[in-house]
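User: What would this chain look like folded?
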Amino acid sequence: MITDTAGAIYEANDAFLNIVGYSRDDLEQGRVQRREMTPPEWTKRDELAVRQLERSGVAPPWEKEYLRKDGTRVPVLVGAATLDPPHSIAFISDLRAEKRAEEASVHAARLAQRETADRKRAEQALRDTEEQLRQSQKMEAIGALAGSIAHDFNNLLSVILGYTETLLGELRSGDPMREDLGQIARAGERAAELTRRLLAFSRRQVLNPKVLDLRDSVSSMARMLERIIGEDVELVLPEPRAVGRVFVDPSQLEQVLLNLAVNAREAMPRGGKLSVELADVELDTDDSAELGLTPGRYVKLVVSDTGSGIEPRIRTRIFEPFFTTKDRGTGLGLSTVFGIVKQSGGGIALDSELGRGTCFSIYLPWADPARHPTSDHPPIAQRKVHGNECVLLVEDDEQVRALACAILRRHGYRVLDAASGGEALLICEQAKEPIDLLLTDVVMPRMSGRELAERVCLQRPGTKVLFMSGYTDDAVMRHGVLGAEMALVQKPLMPQPLLAKLREVLDAKG
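Assistant: Here's the prediction, encoded as structure tokens.
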């Protein structure tokens, strides 16, 4: 059963309900309560188990009794492990059969063996649950660290790449310094790609999802996949049957397929077959729980190869960032796939056998027509980059703020700059001239960019908003998905993309 420290029971299987004599309707109506089923003399032992869960995450098996619905008592063996505090999963074994068997000496030996086996299975289940919890916590901790590093690094890259592009634009075509600056720019772009991978793994990148038919997406990538895998690997594409639509970022979906294709290519040095399959599936409670998803309709994207397979000892680490078995590489390929799939609301499963290949199964939820309309507004045409409007710039990083100010002023804009949300609101109150646009970082101390935008637009309803960010977190925009009404320019901050997006927002109607 799934329970909490207060005694509420959220879910239980039929075996548990049979032990305590309640129906599933009783469970769903909240009439099955752990404390009400526990006789008073067992309360202290349960409290000890709660303290063990809080301290170590595991309560070793102990014997107790439950009060059945008909008032009779049933002896049980209980063990528990923490899922996410205060919730835990408990394993309950009915000891009535063992008690009766102890009175019948003829069957004592057989029952003792069964009791030992049951106990070992319960203990093994607890160990498995504890290991899964440790692995999940480790991935979350690494993801948070990677996201934080990438966020800070994006600010540094904004300064490096922004000033480099500015200098390149001012030098003559034959200037010998252009080659040196070009090398700096290329190195910076490679670093920016690394931060994008870190943000993908940590699920802190900003997504631009659209409603997609995965058949079209896979078909459009066929030629690119063929170039990656080479002539000695056969590419098998999905059958032309209809599948549900999904709501994902097209570029991130391409990244997933490319990374899996590269891995498959390296697993088949002498050639083989790479297959991509699509199917609609309905996940029930058990299947969805294994993937960390909710029950419902999903599109299953399967990418399989006939390569060398993955050794059992490293399968549990295959999605960890920086983990690689290759002589070269960053170890971010599969961790990026994992992060993109999870941030898109999906799940991923691995099946592999040495010498017989590897299969990745990705589950993406069906798009909700009510929340994800298929109509897509055409992009605004490319416009001039100069202007004379007043821009309120808010950025907590001093160097990035100085860079953005220099770019905007060099192209004719009047700039009011602030280092925090509070400072920006003070400028809004005191400024005599209209503020045409608020250009703000998304993640800032004390007040987020989104909170600031809402307050500025209350003070000055005509002010348009453009966000800047290398990543976003759940506290600002849920799961990093940008709202349809919001405009954003991604870090590292580069002059041309910034100016083009700024002009686009200013020139847009409404």
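The chain has four domains: 2-94, 137-202, 210-365, 390-507. If you want, I can go into more detail on any region.
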